[in-house]
C-alpha cells in the first residue's frame, strides 16, 4: 500500500501592530517596492506609507472628489511620482500577477481576497482593515517555483532546476538596471545570478559602456525580484 502525503501552502494571517500608516508599513516587514493603497482617498495616509526611498505608493480611490483632494495633497508635499492616486471602482485590481509588494486596504469594496492574492508577489503582504483592527496576510512562496542558490543551481552543480512554472515570456514584469551593457564580446556585464527566498543576487560590471577597453568596475548587487525601477539595495564590491 502506498501512502501519498499532500502539502498545501496556506496564507498566514496575523494582527498588525499599530494603526498609523508608518506602523502598518513597519509591521508588514516589507522593505521596499510597490505599495498599493485601497481606500477613500487619504492623501496624508498614502504619503505616510512612503517609509523609505525604496517605496513607491499607488492609491486607488472610488470617489472622484476624494481622488482630486488626494492628488492635490501629494503635489503640495512634493511627492508626486513617488506617490500617485487614481479613481478606481472595479471588482479587480489594475495590476499584472505577482507585482505588488504591499497592499494596504481600509475598504476593499468589491475586490475579493483572491484578487488581492493574485497581484501580490510571493512573500508579499496584505494589510486589510477589519472593524477597528488591521490584519496582515502573507502570500506564500509557490512550491512550483524553484530557487537557484548557486552558480549552477545547487551545491551539486547539476545546473538543472526543479521549477515547473517557467515558460515562454508573455510580458514584461519589471525593468531593472543597468539599461546598457558594456559588451557582448567579453564577460557579460550581468552574470553569476542566483536567487533565494525572493531575492536576486548577481555581479555587475559598472565600467564605462562607451569602450570595453576601459577598466572594469565590478559590484555585487542584491535586489528584490519584484522591485520598482532600479535596485532596492546595492552591496558594492570593487576589487583593486
Describe this protein's structure.
- It is a single chain.
- The chain contains four helices and eleven strands.
- By secondary structure, the protein is α/β, with parallel strands linked by helices.
- The strands form two sheets. Strands 1-7-6-5-2-3-4 form a seven-stranded mixed β-sheet.
- The longest helix is centred in the N-terminal third of the chain and has 13 residues, at 64-76.
- Residues 1-9 and 225-240 have low confidence and may be disordered.
Keywords:
240 residues, 2 domains, four-stranded antiparallel sheet, 4 helices, globular
Overall average pLDDT: 82
Question: So, the CATH homologous superfamily of the largest domain?
Answer: Vaccinia Virus protein VP39
Helical content stands at: 10-25%
Work out the oligomeric state of the chains in this entry. single chain
List the helices and strands and how they pair.
Elements lengths: L11 E4 L5 H8 L4 E7 L3 H6 L6 E7 L2 H13 L6 E5 L12 E6 L7 H7 E11 L2 E6 L51 E7 L2 E7 L12 E6 L9 E3 L5
Parallel strand pairs: 2-3, 2-5, 3-4, 5-6
Antiparallel strand pairs: 1-7, 6-7, 8-9, 9-10, 10-11
Amino acid at each position: 500500500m502506498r501512502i501519498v502525503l499532500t502539502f498545501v501552502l496556506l496564507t498566514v494571517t496575523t494582527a498588525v501592530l499599530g494603526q498609523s500608516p508608518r506602523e502598518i508599513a513597519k509591521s508588514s516587514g516589507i522593505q521596499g517596492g510597490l505599495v498599493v493603497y485601497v481606500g477613500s482617498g487619504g492623501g496624508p495616509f498614502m504619503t505616510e506609507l512612503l517609509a523609505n526611498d525604496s517605496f513607491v505608493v499607488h492609491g486607488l480611490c472610488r470617489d472622484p472628489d476624494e481622488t482630486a483632494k488626494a492628488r492635490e495633497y501629494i503635489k503640495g508635499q512634493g511627492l508626486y511620482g513617488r506617490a500617485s492616486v487614481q479613481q478606481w471602482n472595479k471588482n479587480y485590481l489594475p495590476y499584472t500577477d505577482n507585482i505588488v509588494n504591499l497592499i494596504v486596504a481600509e475598504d476593499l469594496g468589491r475586490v475579493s481576497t483572491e484578487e488581492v492574492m493574485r497581484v501580490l508577489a510571493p512573500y508579499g503582504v496584505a494589510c486589510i482593515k477589519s472593524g477597528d483592527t488591521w490584519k496582515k496576510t502573507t502570500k506564500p512562496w509557490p512550491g512550483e517555483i524553484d530557487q537557484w542558490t548557486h552558480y549552477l543551481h545547487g551545491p551539486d552543480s547539476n545546473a538543472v532546476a526543479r521549477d515547473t512554472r517557467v515558460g515562454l515570456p508573455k510580458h514584461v514584469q519589471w525593468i531593472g538596471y543597468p539599461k546598457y551593457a558594456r559588451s557582448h564580446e567579453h564577460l557579460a556585464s550581468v552574470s553569476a545570478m542566483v536567487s533565494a527566498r525572493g531575492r536576486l543576487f548577481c555581479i555587475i560590471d559598472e565600467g564605462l559602456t562607451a569602450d570595453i577597453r576601459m577598466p572594469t568596475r565590478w559590484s555585487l548587487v542584491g535586489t528584490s525580484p519584484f522591485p520598482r525601477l532600479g535596485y532596492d539595495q546595492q552591496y558594492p564590491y570593487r576589487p583593486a
